[in-house]
Amino acid sequence: MSFDYDVTIIGAGPIGSTLAYELAKENIKVCLIDKKKVIGLPLQCAGIINKRVLDVNQFPDGLILNNVKGAFLHSKNHSLSVSKEEDQALIIDRVALDQFLYKRAIENGAHSYLSSKVVAIDDVEGKVTFQNESTEKSIKSKIIVGADGPLSIVSSAFGNDFDYYCASQYLVKIEEDNNQMSFVDLYAYGDLFPGFIWQIPVSENIFRIGLFSNNDYKRQNEILNEFLMNDFQYKNYEIIEKYKGKIPIYNKENKLFKNRALIIGDAASQIKPTTGGGLLIGFEAVGMAKKTILKVLDSEDFNSLNLEKETHDDNSWP
Predict the structure, then answer these.
(1) Which end of the chain is more exposed for a tag (fewer CB within 10 A), N or C?
(2) Which residues make beta-bridge pairs with 37?
């Protein structure tokens, strides 16, 4: 059987691009496919990650916008603070991070197709069909990786069922300087359970304010507007941009692999259950996926594409 690539990765976000980079370093012929014209846009992330991320992936310090050491936790009637002496989390330029990781993969030998929407996969033959403008193209690879988010076409091809929470976020500018740059604010209101509102300081006068919940996007915008009017401590502010995204809900019945294909990152619901964040866990999963893929390519035993076996043996898995 003839193949165009060893590995085709659907989704050139941070997880897909990091896996492409790690495989390209091993002289694996790898291809990235993404429907976006510009990687990283639109923004779909709060952009706060545990500082341990630098233990599993490296990126320039210039992508770090702020460091935080604690949080203020708020209910309707009470507030408390939690902090440590050292910084605990990084506020990152998520768009620039995605673009850096993608560019790094390409510079190390990965090929790519942008503005390309995948319309079908064949996990038995290793075939991926995608549309680019008015043309349709098919490529074949020994392994297909779905790093294509909570609405993953690869996961869907496995027959998986998936659900998600809606998440909305505003970029808010204030007129005065924020004097609590080292703290994020989390608002755990009972009517939002299991979700919450976050207030993340990006700079002295810029915040990311968002929430996830069981509500649809329209209602979430109403909730955020109400929050800004009633609970936001700064009265003079401007909403600069609005974003929305999806947080996958884990389903233990879903498959992580089938025949020549596997899923990773948000496509596999590999996220923190407390916050919905996925970068740290996704980057850790990249190491496991790389090890598994190299073993499978070496042995040609595609029954070994079971990433679950690797996760149970890895003590770093949260």
Answers:
(1) N
(2) none
The closest of 198, 285, 275 to 243, measured between CA atoms, is 198
| 272 CB burial (10 A radius; 0-12, 13-18, 19+) | middle
Find, among 239, 248, 246, the residue nearest to 208 by Cα: 239
Query: Alpha-carbon distance 267 to 261, whole Å?
Result: 12
Q: Which residue has the tokens 């500018």?
A: 173
Query: SS3 for 86-119, per residue?
Result: CCCEEEECHHHHHHHHHHHHHHCCCEEECCEEEE
Q: 93-123 burial, b for 16+ CB within 10 Å, e for fewer?
A: bbbebbbbbbebbbeeebbbbeebebeebbb
Please name the residue that has the structure tokens 């609405």: 151
Q: Give the bridge partners for 239, in sequence order.
A: 172
Which among 245, 211, 290 is positioned nearest to 15, based on CA atoms?
Answer: 290
- Strand pairing of 196-203 and 5-10? unpaired
Strand partners, 202: none
Please give the structure tokens belonging to residue 187: 């608002």
pLDDT in tens, 190-230: 999 999 999 999 999 999 999 999 999 999 999 999 999 99
- Dihedral of CA atoms 186, 190, 191, 193 in degrees, nearest 10, equals 70
| E strand or H helix at 156 | helix 153-157
DSSP state of 38: S
Question: 279-299 vs 14-25: helix axis angle to the nearest 10?
Answer: 40
- Measured in whole angstroms, the distance separating CA 58 from the mean position of its chain's CA atoms is 16
How does pLDDT run across 115-170, given as a tens digit for each residue? 999 999 999 999 999 998 889 999 999 999 999 999 999 999 999 998 999 999 99
**Strand 5-10 to 30-33 pairing:** parallel
Question: How many Å is the Cα radius of gyration of the chain?
Answer: 20
Nearest 10 degrees: Cα torsion 189, 190, 191, 195? 70
Nearest to 117 by CA among 133, 99, 140: 133
Average pLDDT across the chain, whole number: 92
Q: What phi, psi does 27 have (nearest 5°)?
A: 65, 30
